[in-house]
Amino acid sequence: MRTQVLGDLVLGRGHPTYGPVAVGLCILASFVIGSVNPAAIIARLLRRDLRGSGSGNPGATNAGRVLGTGWGIAVGLLDVLKGYLPTLLLTPRTSGPLVGVCAAAAVLGHIWSPFLRGRGGKGVATTLGALLAMAPWLALVVVVVFVVGIVAWRTTGKASILASVVLVVVGVVVAATSQWPSMRWPGAWSALLGLIVLLRHHRNLRAWGRLARA
User: Fold this and answer.
1) What does the domain layout of the chain look like in residue ranges?
2) pTM of the entire structure?
């Protein structure tokens, strides 16, 4: 009985039979998948150095800036898949916290990749991929807000921060007010993912704070 209750709490009702080892492997696999950095791999194949060019960030925006728009789009799509596939495939028929844990693991792997000595991208595209698998309607909200930010400011940094703020707010509201667990968990984890992306943009936020005070 205790095992069943714990399984419902961690994995959600109607979950498949996952033991502690299987849960750990799901989380580890999500982190490793997220850690694989397409921008760095493509740049190396093209004999370019992203860390020494542009913003130095091994993500889709800098890849587009340094390698070309086409490569930037390709990197962005691959980064989205890094968040989508672990969240969708490693937690089948699961609606509980494990989905969010795997999503967060993929995003954290992207941000702090052991293959890049703890460096990585800012997690925007990987977060979008996780949302597409976990809460597609929230992903749509994020995309719309991001596009509005791009139109207003013409910079992905500000657009990403705006989208992250909205994601945190909407996620918290959904988690706090929804009567259905299938909505509360995605809301809570989406808010956490938005907060992670915001924290990853701390340099941008500090720079804009200095400009505002100047």
Assistant:
1) 2-213
2) 0.86
Q: In whole angstroms, how large is the CA radius of gyration of the chain?
A: 18
Q: What is the pLDDT, as a whole number, of residue 10?
A: 46
φ, ψ for residue 190 (rounded to 5)?
-65, -40
DSSP structure string for 91-159: STT--SHHHHHHHHHHHHHHHTBGGGTTB---SHHHHHHHHHHH-HHHHHHHHHHHHHHHHHHS-HHHH
Q: Which residue has the higher pLDDT, 89 or 34?
A: 34
pLDDT value for 184:
85
Q: Are 30 and 86 in contact (CB under 8 A)?
A: yes
Cβ atoms of residues 49 and 56 within 8 Å: no
In the Cβ-directed half-sphere of 41, how many Cα atoms lie within 13 Å?
10
Which residues fall within 8 angstroms of residue 58, CB to CB, at 6 or more apart? Answer: 37, 39, 40, 43, 50, 51, 116, 119, 120, 121
CA angle 6, 12, 13 (to 5 degrees): 95
